[in-house]
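Q: Predict the bound structure with adenosine-5'-triphosphate.
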Amino acid sequence: MKITLMARAKINWSIDVLGRREDGYHLLDMVMQSIGLWDVLTLESAREDTFCVAGRPVPANGDNLVLKAVALMREASGVSEGVAAELTKTIPVAAGLGGGSADAAAALVGLNRLWKLKYSQERLCELGGRLGADVPFMIRGGLCRAQGVGDELTPLSGGGAFHLVLLKPRKGVSTRLSYGRLRLDRLGRRPRTEALVEALKRGESRRIPELWGNGLEPGSAELCPDILKAKAALVNAGAMGALMCGSGSTVLGLFENGEQARKSAQELRKDWGFSRAVRTQSRGVTVMDEQ
Ligand code: ATP
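A: Predicted complex:
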């Protein structure tokens, strides 16, 4: 059997940093949504394990989250048969778009089918949480509020199809280094999360920029000052507002319609490493083909 999966990236409409736990993890209140930008993962039963990656430079060894997910599922299920995995990466790396977590989520969903394990989504999310805080969200997808250390998910109904342009400086930002620069006394403008959730549910795009905010932005912008230039470039190109995605370095611009977003993404492409018009989505990992 061969399964092909779509592993969608995410954006954060807000990251509110509420404090720090004694173990060093930050307490967060975030609103996340899947977007129309994805990696493709194929999984096929095989005599022995093989893995290849195309599209973007990420490790093709045991450090890759796909192989970590295979090892975890094997340990949880006791299945010993081999799997041939092929990953085609489109999601930029170290971009704040959760590419690695999306791939891990796709591997868990795919192996659940390939090995006919019948694990519930809750069980897959529990396993995914061991691979990374964003993995459970990537499995569920859509529009969600994530609290705690990012692992307490509340799915939110509605969530219009918003039009975005993603702009990424050539330099990426490591999530670990971004959190290292986080200071609780300089979080920038805090998001108004409750009002933001209402505006998102109702599809009131014009209200969103006055309600969103990302507490990781000041620290990431120190590591990569082009983040601030990317925000300015998006607003100059007609965005209603611009906000850093996750821990950066990608920045999103919110546009009134798809046509404007596509035109602006094209104009910005010549000066920036990655510029893409995308729409928000209501699903995370999906199975594209099964044979
Ligand atoms: P996040 O927003 O989840 O914090 P990110 O989008 O900023 O993460 P990723 O692209 O997921 O960053 O990857 C960060 C690092 O994880 C990479 O430098 C890479 O070495 C490692 N990694 C492991 N597996 C993968 C994978 N399948 N895809 C991308 N990166 C991976």
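A: The longest strand covers residues 26-46.
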